[in-house]
Amino acid sequence: MAEGPDPRDKPLEELEREITCAVCHGVYQQAKLLPCNHYYCSTCIEKMAAASRGRPLHCPECRKETSLPPGGAAALEAAFFVERMKDVYGKLAKAEGKVEAVCEQCSAAQSVAFCRQCGDFICRRHCPQDMNIICWIVFFR
Questions:
Q1: Pfam families per the record (predicted)?
Q2: For 121-140, what is each residue's pLDDT tens digit?
Q3: 3-state secondary structure of 27
Q4: CB 50: neighbour CB atoms within 10 A?
Q5: What's the rounded mean pLDDT across residues 74-90?
Q6: Which of 140, 65, 80, 122 is nearest to 131 (CA)?
Q7: What is the tens place of the pLDDT at every residue in 85-124?
């Protein structure tokens, strides 16, 4: 029986799948951990909670019932490892010359950097002056 291509043949694509939210299909923004250890964008969790109309929400992956803490998605534990994966992805994409990301702050401009502090691909306009050293560590051209 023939098997599909080995995902290890394309590590950048595999990593890209790992940093893509299953709800919005975008790069994770402020990823938060649900109690079941699956993670989603903070805004995606808030939207799921709003859609559940006060009832416990269900994890899209495992369907486990989850109630958000009083502070909502913001009070959930941050998925710091996702931010690290985004950082690694940015470095690998630069090394392979495959960076075509748009700014995650305005979604309009071509990104020129990956900010290690906020974990976003950003354009020149959204890199504050006091963060230049951090922002330009991974410079895309």
A1: zf-C3HC4
A2: 777 777 665 554 344 434 44
A3: strand
A4: 11
A5: 88
A6: 122
A7: 888 887 777 766 655 567 777 766 676 676 666 667 777 7
Same domain, 65 and 95: no
Question: Does residue 49 share a domain with residue 88?
Answer: no
Query: Could you list the residue range(s) of the whole structural domain that residue 123 is in?
Result: 83-135
Total tally of structural domains belonging to the chain = 2
Total residues found in the chain within this entry: 141
Residue 46 makes CB contacts below 8 A (sequence gap 6+) with 72, 73
Distances from the Cα of 116 to the Cαs of 2, 11, 45, in angstroms?
A: 41, 21, 23
Gap between the Cα atoms of 57 and 111, Å rounded: 34
Q: Are residues 95 and 124 in the same domain?
A: yes
Query: CB burial class (10 A; 0-12, 13-18, 19+) of residue 101?
Result: buried
Q: Which two tokens stand for residue 133?
A: 């050293």
Residue 18 lies in a domain: no
